[in-house]
Specification:
24% strand; globular; 4-stranded parallel sheet; single chain; alpha/beta
């Protein structure tokens, strides 16, 4: 079983690196960016995320777009200002197994 993490962003250059590092255990990290004007997209790509740029029309559509781009069996949605602690990481792995 595989895990994709989907992160929705808009001008999150101060937050995105720590967020993506905390989910680096995932098989795939997908960032859906709402036309950031800062370095969010650059940082996300540098950290190995697959980035899609899409103007936000509404939150549900943006999340569904992210879901359509992710390829894994399991999905985890994380906000750019969130971090996945090791305890949650272990819980996720136990559930997937």
């Amino acid at each position: 079983m595989s895990l994709s993490v989907v992160v929705l962003t808009k001008n999150e250059e101060d937050m995105i690196a720590d967020c993506l590092k905390s989910v680096s255990f995932a098989d795939e990290v997908v960032v859906i960016d709402d036309q950031s004007t800062d370095r969010t997209v650059y940082i996300a790509r540098e950290l190995g995320a697959t980035v899609f740029e899409r103007k936000l029309d509404d939150f549900a559509s943006q999340r569904n777009f992210g879901l359509s781009k992710a390829r894994s069996d399991w999905m985890l949605f994380v906000d750019a200002d969130e971090r996945v602690p090791d305890t949650l990481k272990e819980e996720i792995y136990e559930t997937i197994r």
